[in-house]
């Protein structure tokens, strides 16, 4: 499906951008290719799995791959998000209208923060904004991340506001709209919509390339990943990966992008340097949201429609384990992880 920008960027302009030689830029993900921060290194590795149907959190010991805890948090929890400074975790409990805060040592709830329809939660790279993707309201809601004082509610001219990532300089973001095929650029200085791009299908997860020049956007109905110029924005390439392309994660060495193909029951990997799919591994079921283990040897995926979590060996591509967790596992989080700070979602670090 061809894309067309509502901000009037032409096909010829997009083609010219695609042909422009890429320049060497700093790697925005460099900090994830390092050990876990000293202040977090003593925490046992845990995988927190929200069961959106059961309304609870399942906690898995990542070393033994056994369930060690389970507790209720409210109706329709979608993602577990580490705070910007990685000092706590937040469960996005969409239908109950709150964030459930978890304390790190116990991994248990300590308070609720009332917000409207929190499907997803992010933090600006500067750490001065908490951003709630209020899917059912088609808004981004901005808060002070310490006091949770509301700053602004920004209507997004699209349907199904879902996932986002930030520009390399942290001054803008690109957010997907799952239900009507749009991605929207938002200026974080003015907290305003800057442009809207129609890509078609059902855009879901969003990740910035290491060089910061393009965004990768998984598209569940187009069965692959759009490559979006970070400045304009315009779609300059499309990479087929498999039916139901949905979740994205970056390899620990920052050379590859992992893509869950939820309808195909597979995981693809894209080489950032060539922008080509280089591997495809089978998990079966319905792999959804992804997390790389702290040392980078395993890929964990929630089986959204099959009530299980998959663990994949990233060296061989073989399936190491299948863990039954409940009826609707979604945005699982492997914690702790390397990185200086967290920009949100189910654990995205810079």
Describe the structure.
There is one protein chain. By secondary structure, this protein is an all-beta fold. The protein is 3% helix and 49% strand. The relative contact order is 0.17. Strands 1-16-15-14-13 form a 5-stranded antiparallel beta sheet, with no helix packed on it. It has a 4-stranded antiparallel beta sheet with strand order 4-3-2-29, with no helix packed on it. Strands 5-6-7-8 form a 4-stranded antiparallel beta sheet, with no helix packed on it. The protein has one domain (4-349): YVTN repeat-like/Quinoprotein amine dehydrogenase (Methylamine Dehydrogenase, Chain H). It contains 1 helix and 31 strands. The chain is globular and about 45 Å long.
Features:
350 residues; five-stranded antiparallel β-sheet; Methylamine Dehydrogenase, Chain H; 3% helix; mainly beta
Characterize this entry briefly.
This protein has 350 residues and is mostly beta strands. Helices cover 3% and strands 49% of the residues.
Number of domains: 1
CATH level 3 topology: Methylamine Dehydrogenase, Chain H
Q: What does the average pLDDT come to?
A: 93
Count of helical regions: 1
- By DSSP, the count of extended strands is 31
Q: Biggest sheet: strands, sense, closure? A: 5 strands, antiparallel
Task: Flag low-confidence runs.
Answer: 1-22
Q: What CATH architecture do you see?
A: 7 Propeller
């Amino acid at each position: 499906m061809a894309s067309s920008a509502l901000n009037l960027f032409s096909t010829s302009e997009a083609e010219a951008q695609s042909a422009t030689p890429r320049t060497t830029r700093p790697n925005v993900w460099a900090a994830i290719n390092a050990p876990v921060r000293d202040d977090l290194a003593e925490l046992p590795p845990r995988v927190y799995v929200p069961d959106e149907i059961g309304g609870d959190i399942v906690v898995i010991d990542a070393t033994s791959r056994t369930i060690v805890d389970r507790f209720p948090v409210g109706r329709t929890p979608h993602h577990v998000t580490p705070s910007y400074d990685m000092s706590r975790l937040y469960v996005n409990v969409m239908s109950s209208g709150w964030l459930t805060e978890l304390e790190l040592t116990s991994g248990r709830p300590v308070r609720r923060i009332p917000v409207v329809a929190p499907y997803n939660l992010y933090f600006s790279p500067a750490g001065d904004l908490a951003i709630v993707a209020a899917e059912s309201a088609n808004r981004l809601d901005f808060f002070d991340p310490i006091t949770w004082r509301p700053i602004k509610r920004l209507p997004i001219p699209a349907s199904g506001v879902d996932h986002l990532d930030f520009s390399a300089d942290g001054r803008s973001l690109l957010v997907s709209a799952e239900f009507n095929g749009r991605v929207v650029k938002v200026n974080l200085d003015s907290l305003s919509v800057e442009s809207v791009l129609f890509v078609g299908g059902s855009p879901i997860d969003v990740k910035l390339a290491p060089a910061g020049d393009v965004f990768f956007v998984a598209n569940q109905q187009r069965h692959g990943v759009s490559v979006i110029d970070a400045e304009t924005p315009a779609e300059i390439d499309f990479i087929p990966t498999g039916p139901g392309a949905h979740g994205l994660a970056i390899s620990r060495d920052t050379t590859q992008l992992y893509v869950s193909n939820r309808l195909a029951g597979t995981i693809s990997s894209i080489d950032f340097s060539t922008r080509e799919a280089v591997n495809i591994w089978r998990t079966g079921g319905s792999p959804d949201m992804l997390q790389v283990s702290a040392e980078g040897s395993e890929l964990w995926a929630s089986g959204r429609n099959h009530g299980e979590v998959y663990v994949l060996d990233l060296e061989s591509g073989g399936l190491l384990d299948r863990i039954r967790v409940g009826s609707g596992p979604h945005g699982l989080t492997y914690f702790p992880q390397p990185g200086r700070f967290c920009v949100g979602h189910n654990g995205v670090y810079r």
